[in-house]
Structures are given as structure tokens and as C-alpha cells.
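U., I forgot to send this yesterday:
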Amino acid sequence: MGRYTGPNCKLCRREGMKLFLKGDRCFTPKCAIERHNLPPGQTGGMRPMRRRMSEYAVQLREKQKVRRAYGLMERQFRRYFRLAEKSAGLTGGNLLQILESRLDNVVYRMGFAMSRKQARQLVTHRHFRVNGKPVKSPSCLMELGDEITVRPASNDLDIFVIAQERASDIGRPAWVSVDVEKKSGKVTALPERDQVDVVVNEQLIVEYYSR
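Result:
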């Protein structure tokens, strides 16, 4: 599956807000959106004031914002929406719960990585085990009670020490528990709507795909 390999700050500027695609580095003064919150492109700062966005454009931007924050391609994001649509409950809430339950996101939320992008790379390099079994698919959906551990051969990597120190500063969501000494974590509950760290109006995404 193809992946976006361009500048992360360009995506943030396009959506007009920080998507926190680079972990702690998003808080530095060098962050492009901190210096000039303008659309990307050579003439981004010279563009005339745009007309008011249409209803469709607002829905599209909301969908793109969430898709980019979780690092997904359109086909995969659409598949998650169809899965959320078939599940009981509110479609928008179901979609966010599915996105939060991805292995790469859970690894990031537990504090084993500085960003979702970094978490995805660590998973594909087989640094983690789920319920004792090695897993290399970042899209694997975690369930209640699943345990994630760093494989023994990777325990001494500095990246996990740095990431855990950052996680201790900013905190972890209540739906996961982490044993820092054992470098393991467990999904203790399903993520609730107010525990999603991406600022999103999920109803706009539902309306976008329901056209």
C-alpha cells in the first residue's frame, strides 16, 4: 500500500492545524504552522481571500484531517467507515473507536513511540508482540484485554526510553495500562469519544460518506 512520504508540516498547513504527525517536534519553533499558518505552496501566503467553503468542502476537509492524522490511505479509511456503519451505535463514534484500536495507534497511546508514524514503523519491524505472538501489521485491531509487549531483543533500544519519558510528561489515556519496567501494556477498556486526541467533528465525515 502506498504511503505519503512528503513533508509532514505541509499536511498540517493544508488542514490549518497541527496534526501532531512528528511527535515532540511539532512543539518546536521550527514547526511551519507555528511560523506561518498559511496554505502550502509557493503562493500560499499571496492567495486572495477564498470564498466561503461549500458544505461538501467542509466535510471533505474534516475527513482528510482525520485520515492524515492516523496515516491512512483513502481505501483503508473508507473500509473502516463501512465497518463502523455496520456496527451497533453511532457511526461516527464507532469510526473513531476503530481508528483508536489500531495497533500502531495503541502503541503510540501507550507511549512506546513518539508519533503514530513512528509506531507504525516499529510494528512493521517486529518490535512488538500481541498476547505473546509477534505481529507486524499496524492495522491489526486491538480488543479488550489484549496485551502488547516489547520483544526481549528490543528492550534496550533508546527509542523506548525516550518515548516513555515523553508519555510520563503528557499522560496516557485511561483505557490503557502500562508497566514501564516490563515494557508492556494492556487494553483495559474500549476508547470513549472524549478520549480521542484528534480534534474532529465526526458527524461531518458521516455526512461526507452518506452523500
